[in-house]
Amino acid sequence: MQEINDTEAYQRSLNMLRICLSPAGFLATPVSVDNYARVWARDGMITGLAALASGEADLIAAMERTLTTLSSHQGPHGEIPSNVSLDANQVSYGRLVGRVDSLLWYVIGVCAFVRYTNDANLKIRHQSNVERALFLAGCWEYNNRNLIYTPLGGNWADEYVQHGYVLSDQLLYNMALESAGLIYDNQVWRTKAQYLQQLLAVNYWPRISLSNDPLVYHPYAYRYQAKQGEIAHWLPAFSPTGYATYFDGLAHALALLTHLGDDNQRQRAEEYVQSLEQQTGSALLPAFWPVIQPGDPDWSSFEFNHLYEQIKNQPYMYHNGGLWPVLTGLYAVGLVSNAQKQRAKQLLTAINAANAQASANEQWLFSEYHHGQTHLPMGTKHMAWSAAAGVLAHQAVWHGITPWPF
Hints:
14 strands, mainly alpha, 14 helices, globular
């Protein structure tokens, strides 16, 4: 990929965010394909965080509209919609299964907005929505042991094989509790977040030396995994049947943002991410790695767990080894917060080059993701959160601005 001028790329990214504006808030994309041209909790909050980082008044106003759209359609148990159509006639909390990450992103977004704007009225207006959302998240612990349980397809990896005690969702839970505890001066939430941080550092990096630690959640699975040899990155999930061992790009971005673990763990995880760059030939983070191929044990899940007539998760595509600007942007912000600005700058260059990729008729596609082998732009174009990746990474690298509410 060619290197793109940072200033031009930043302005292009801001313009892309403006193309995604609507009266109801940020659209995931204005492109009318499947259900993408809607206000999404996940996409909207990541885009909203980029709006806060940019300081642009019209984009910040769009984040407030996004929050209002989501809160006004909160479900009876505290659910935050996965997405809402522009006319509000279609409200989805997840098609085949509910989405646990939507309400967590919403809480993070509310708190980030209040922290940035010091808007006391919005803080009060969303307080009951935040309380109901976190109450429901607590219910999803099921056994009152601090980890929420994600069903298959229950987060952003909606057609992937991920389920159980998923690290990325636990980290979002931790961020939601910590930020809400700070904004709403709730010590119960903050104490729970601090305990959860310790729990995650132990359970998602199994070590023989910690096999008898009282924080170990699933002793038999933990000891078995620890005996398999030292791992090189955070493990993505475990369930009653044991640990998954693939690499999870979102989990690693969130782990950096929350400073999960110690210096040695963070260094080893970053070394693994750099080794992936050698494997894929790109600095963009894959959603998950290694790639699941036809005939592999997990492939059968793809044959049923999809919505739109075809399997998106072909090898090196979508979540199955696809390379994502949005994950890379979040990871770059995490690098800056861990004093690795030069490395983050390399990722910003890769994000800008990826967003600038063109088709026969159009420059700067801002594609959803890129093929894990060919690096060609894939998925839906004009994605707000691909542009948001460029904004977030740019503001972190060049101005030290990070919009996180904790």
